[in-house]
Amino acid sequence: MSGWRKSTAFLTVIAMVSVAAITAGLASAKNSKAGAAAAKADSPGLTIMGFGKGDDVAESRAAIAIKAVGGNVSRPSGSFNDQQFLAAVASGNPPDLVYLDRQKVGSYAAKGAFVPLTSCIKSQKIDMKQYRQAAVNEVTYKNQVYGIPEFYDVRTILVDNNVLDQTNTPIGWLNPAKPAQLLAAAKKMVLISNGKVTRIGFDPKLPEFFPLWAKAYGVDILSKDGLTPHLNDPRAVKALTYAMSLINAQGGWNSFKSFRDTWDFFGSDNQVAKNQVGAWPMEQWYYNVLAGSSPQVKITALQFRNLKNQPINYETGSAWAIPKGAKHPGAACTWMRTMTSTSTWLAAAKNRAALRKAKNQPYTGISTGNAVADQAIYKQTYTSINKFFDETTKKVLDVQRFSFGIPASPASAEFKNAWNDAVTRVLAGQQTPKQALDQAQKEAVAAIKAATK
Amino acid sequence: MATVAASAPGPRVRVRRWASGFRSRETWAAFAFLSPWLFGFVVFTAGPMIASAVLSFTDYSVIGTTHNVGWANYHQMFHDPKVATAMKTTLIYTVMVVPAHVIVALGLAVLLARVGRAAGFFRTVFYLPTMTPAVAVGVLYLLLFNGDFGLINGTIAHFGIHGPYWLIDPNWVKPGIVLMQLWSVGASVVILLAALMGVPQHLYEASAMDGASAWRRFRDVTVPMISPAIFFIVIINTIDALQTFDKVYTAFFNGSTPYGTDASLFYVIYLFQQAFTYYHLGYASALAWGLFLVIAVVTAIQVIGSRRYVYYEGSKK
Known about the structure:
The complex is a heterodimer. By secondary structure, chain A is α/β, with parallel strands linked by helices. Helix content of chain A is 50%, strand content 12%. In chain B, helix 6 (119-131) runs antiparallel to helix 10 (186-197) and helix 13 (227-242) runs antiparallel to helix 16 (281-309). At the A-B interface, helix 1, helix 3, helix 11 and helix 17 of A face helix 3 and helix 15 of B.
């Protein structure tokens, strides 16, 4: 019994020590955290979320911006993460600056998570006219600017000239303004072997580019104030019906997507190099990928056109915004201005051009939200690659004039999911375009109503 | 009955008895040992659960003012068609995956039990997929199950079967996910193998002497003797299936423009969207409690049902 008591006492001591150690550990962690917090509060540093270490364009601009804000900048790795941001806000320690998708800015602005940049723009004399209007519209909510545009993605129709030549398809047929001809071109270029698609003729890029198709058919899927969806507008239904007909004429969605999923998108055996697709609307950054992975490809860029045969461009991109409660809004403003200024963009472009030249790789330029910078970059840094890439670069610069974006909305995520899910249901054959877009309209209206309550 | 009722101690007596236990050094020792776990439970499990219960009655969105909304979130839950869709998808999947999981795991365990020297090697091989990160499994699934060019359909094509479009056709999405889930059957195999090894050999010998066939021995000796292990696997996998998230999210809902449809919209994916895409954390908390109740009810039914089918050695039945 005595032995039992001794061992019990011994074990109790061990358990107590363990608990004490854990408690001490936690207390020490808390103290060090408190110390770190105190140190942080004292430091003039700038904390940025969503802008971890990036490529040469990001880093060369960041080096200039770090100098401009006086050095002390904290940039945790990784891109913008809603969960992380919400956790930081909930803990009362939001970052000073966030870098995120422009389409998210409106939602956060509506919830009061971001501050309007009126005083920042005024105090730092930021010339808003240098930024592309469509990008500024994306970050403007209730007539107040909440973000500074950064990159600017534009869409052109990327054509594989080899497929065109092999199938004797006239390039003029690849025009959404002439739906019958485009459909004929898709049928002419598609290759189906043993019931499997082995070459896509024309990929309408659904569901991603549904806003572009709707615009081509004459409707903006969201009103300028971001409060009224037009998802089930007859023109949107017609646009989706037509885009679906393109897929159905090329083996149907199942086979179409199965084949598309096999593409080596970023590799040297990409779908253009292997002539696996005739043409499809695509963001401009892919020309840069092609220039690096397969510069020998023969390509053409075409403007996407509406039914009136006018060029249109669906733009998206990133932006900078200052969260409410940021401790260093002044430094954040300086950072945004510096990062997006013409001189900084130009310096980054020159650096990239030099790096590419050193590696004997082609350079296709940078597409920014700053129109003045884009012109300067093209004039001062672009050097000829070959006639195909030279022409596409010119075309990419040209289509930027015809841009539209999705306006800032208090329920941007819900709105996007509503139309994306609708198009996916149509693709999967679960609903007709009308049924799907009617449902999406209801969902979007309810979401916006709830967000503005 | 009256005598029993009269002799039952009152609440005060019960509390006094419980408190008297603390005079014993062993009780303190037990609580001292339990305290790290108790601390973890309070801080990381009970605390968040209570917080989530409170939040489920608010319109909490992290950002902005929080208001008390009463039962509105629960009311919305019952009238949200997406909740019904997601729950239906999850339940159908659970009904499909749990039996499939048990059958495959049991089959493999029986095979492993017969392997002699190399049993350890095969046990490791079968367990290895369990160690694969869920995200990697999700990506692998997209490659293996491609309708026209995937390895699965490529293999069955050799037998003249034109495989379905597992990733796209809404009718085949769930069976495809079930097959993906069977990839990580290894943990259950190990548990069942241990149970199989524990079945007394003399029971087989006796039944063999009585002329029982191999199937009869398996049905009437093996299965009843390992029924507690089977029951454990059923319970754990049912809960796991009702909470399906990571692999399906990676395969169908990741990226800026996902291709997921109602066929792959699982309950927890919808809950996640509400919480971290739309910032409706109050509503998401209500959804979480809804799932908790569903799991509790399903588990209770399984436990009650187990009294009839599960044999515990040494129990009265």
